[in-house]
Design brief:
TIM Barrel; 10 helices; 309 residues; five-stranded mixed β-sheet; alpha+beta; three-stranded antiparallel β-sheet; 14% strand
Length: 309
């Protein structure tokens, strides 16, 4: 059986990019539209991994070929974060996971106790900001799964995750990380031999997973950003005609409109940053693993985009 294990909907909320957070959302896809697109592209099971919410997933929960999941934002010291996907959860588990987002030890213990299959996502990406090498080590071997094929990430990011996951005994999973319908199910996970939703989740628990599909690219990033912006402007237009749009939002959309032709330059800079950031992180991770861990009290290694490539 096949399922895209990383896909977003309208319920992922507003973007956290400064300025743009006043204009648009992370994603404009309706959950049912995501479901239909995934099924048409050959997915046997459908799940949503919206940011820290299962509201969209619950809209599909009555369908037998779905299960509820979410993308958790694990809060670390000094505002640093990691993203984890938790699969096949219910409302009670969602609430208890959210209550533990600032306590990694408690969160990992709860996932293990409840036998919830969970993966660390895009480990070497700049999406979650600067971090210490200790942050990269934190989930390794503590979770059963690692996202080794993210359809929005460069192949180099995914290859590094595969290497690290293999060395840590973590099974690889894949997902599109789609924020628009165009890219749903372009990357996914297969559990060989599974014949039901329960079989699929059981396979994830024991690591019987095979990631399939393709990695991201500059073209994919540009396409996704362009589609999200187009959907955001269309949404603002509907609100304006319906009398629901805030004056500030309308003015900001109008001010940003002349910049839309520059989207390919913006995404080129973002993609180049991803490549450089991932390379810096992986080198620092390898260096830290090649020498003894620092003694208590020694300052941790920080990895940031500002490091030399």
């Amino acid at each position: 059986m096949r399922s895209d294990l990383h896909v977003h909907s309208w319920y992922s909320g507003r973007t956290d990019v400064p300025v743009l957070d006043h204009v648009g959302r992370e994603c404009y896809s309706d959950p049912h539209a995501v479901y239909e697109r995934a099924r048409r592209r050959g997915m046997d099971l459908v799940t949503l991994t919206d940011h820290d919410t299962i509201e969209g997933g619950l809209r599909l929960a009555h369908l037998r070929d779905t299960f509820v999941s979410e993308e958790l934002t694990l809060q670390l010291d000094e505002g640093r974060t990691l993203h984890l996907n938790a699969y096949g959860i219910d409302e009670r588990q969602h609430q208890r996971l959210q209550a533990r987002r600032r306590d990694p030890e408690s969160l990992f213990a709860f996932l293990a106790e409840q036998q919830i299959p969970a993966a660390v996502n895009h480990l070497f990406s700049a999406l979650t900001g600067d971090r210490h090498v200790a942050d990269l080590r934190l989930p390794l071997g503590r979770l059963p799964l690692i996202e080794a094929l993210n359809g929005a990430m460069p192949e180099s990011h995914n290859e590094r995750a595969r290497l690290v996951g293999r060395a840590s005994g973590m099974a690889p999973v894949g997902g599109s990380d789609a924020h628009s319908l165009a890219h749903v199910a372009r990357a996914f996970t297969t559990v060989p031999g599974a014949r039901s939703r329960e079989d699929f989740l059981a396979g994830l628990r024991v690591g019987l997973s095979v990631p399939c599909g393709r990695s991201g690219s500059y073209a994919r990033l540009t396409s996704e950003v362009s589609r999200i912006l187009a959907a955001g402007y269309a949404d603002a237009g509907r609100d304006l005609f319906a009398g629901r749009a805030a004056p500030f939002r309308v003015a900001l959309c109008a001010a940003l409109a002349p910049l839309l032709p520059l989207v390919p330059l913006f995404t080129l800079a973002v993609y180049a940053r991803e490549l450089r950031f991932g390379a810096c992180q992986f080198r620092a991770f390898q260096a830290a693993c090649a020498r003894p861990r620092p003694r208590a009290g020694r300052a941790p290694i920080r990895v940031s985009f500002g490091e030399a490539a």
